[in-house]
């Protein structure tokens, strides 16, 4: 038997188009061909299960072999095979109407190229991206079928002849082109197989070794799995990572098909490096780890696997953005994650609190970026006070309601962004019976703003943004031991001693045991600068503005009464001011040197 003919297409340029435009990454040819072989093998298994094939199935597997000397790559299967007529039907007749126009439309859009093969059924022809000639030797499972060989040199011409093959199945033989000889290196092939074929549902053999896990745990029922199974699979996915905190097993078949496992890693504050750790599969074939449109952005901090047959192998960015199934998957995953966290919180709050430092950034990020997630998470997001205790939002509001409601009937939540640096302010607040929160993560400047928007009649103030009396303002007024003339004189002394136009000086009657000089940055300015540093959430111009501070001189402190009586008022005032700077780690360089010298001078004066 011998037949010659032309591949039925609507353009003579099909192979240059395939080679130049269809895939931005040529290594995908192996994924396509191995996936086809797996499909043929699974069809064989299916035919046997329904009684359409009654013979011996044998050991179903796909084999990949490299022959550097012959310069060939062979993908073999013992699946359903093809007759000569089926080769003509499935290989030769390519429905590629308007191919040139279509490719011209997408040639400058790298993200769309990968979609073309999937849309037009050209998976097999990706072989010509690396091969100058391709042979198919195949034998159908049908009784009495004869083996056939198809041969094509990359033009539109082909030959079909009889072939020698005892067993059913197909060999695809790629005669590798000179510009693609990198794919004759076994390590290169192994790397590609490990990337795309690691969890294919049929055993894939390379160099005498099965290189895949055909039954990954996401294909099994949660009831059949142990905690150790989940941990071992995580180690298989991420060999160098710390063990996960916990996980979610996804399994839904309506209104879309989706399976998978999402793991919660230990995030701490460094979440940028965590991205692109979720792997997207379609029927156990790896597609991509860039899952932004399948998974909400904040969930990209998770690790794991999502598998959905509703997402084709050759996806483009525009497909993911527009596809209704993808949007449903996105919503479903968000709900499942929120439900899982809520369940852990309700059933085992102790474990939830123990893991809070590792997942807090993730939960807060989710609340900031997704309103539906916020509605669920507001009941389990935790606020930690400086004494190490954890509270839900409602628990914390109830705790501080009586003592931290100001004269405008606003609840004031006090926080520190650095308990060590702001220790004096924290201590001053606690001495008044106030409770102080720790909000010191990379995302908290944004989280604080969100809480003020969401919580009624509630404001948040950093403990060092005002003097203690102004943090939670009441109708109570303090009397000053200084008269107006003395207060004005004291203000002038400090203004001259400080000599800094970015420092606004005021004299106020604080408690006698409060600090003599208090330096604060207004809450608005501090918050905008914090947000700007955290990632542009504030006003960009704030990053260019100089730091502005309020300097409050305690009129009722004995030191300031002494300043008014001192011969060297300026020297003593500067010393008190520098001590305030020093308490906030704001004194350095020449100013610190001057302070030390002045301290010795004052200590040695009689």
UniProtKB/TrEMBL annotation:
Q: Which residues form the signal peptide?
A: none
Keywords of this entry? ATP-binding, Chaperone, Nucleotide-binding
Domain Histidine kinase/HSP90-like ATPase residues, every copy? 25-166
InterPro entries in alphabetical order:
HATPase_C_sf (IPR036890), HATPase_dom (IPR003594), Heat_shock_protein_90_CS (IPR019805), HSP90_C (IPR037196), Hsp90_fam (IPR001404), Hsp90_N (IPR020575), Ribosomal_Su5_D2-typ_SF (IPR020568)
Source superkingdom: Bacteria
Pfam families in UniProt = HATPase_c_3, HSP90
Which protein family is it in?
A: Belongs to the heat shock protein 90 family.
What is the name listed in the Swiss-Prot or TrEMBL entry for this protein? Molecular chaperone HtpG
Instruction: Name the source organism.
Output: Pontibacter rugosus
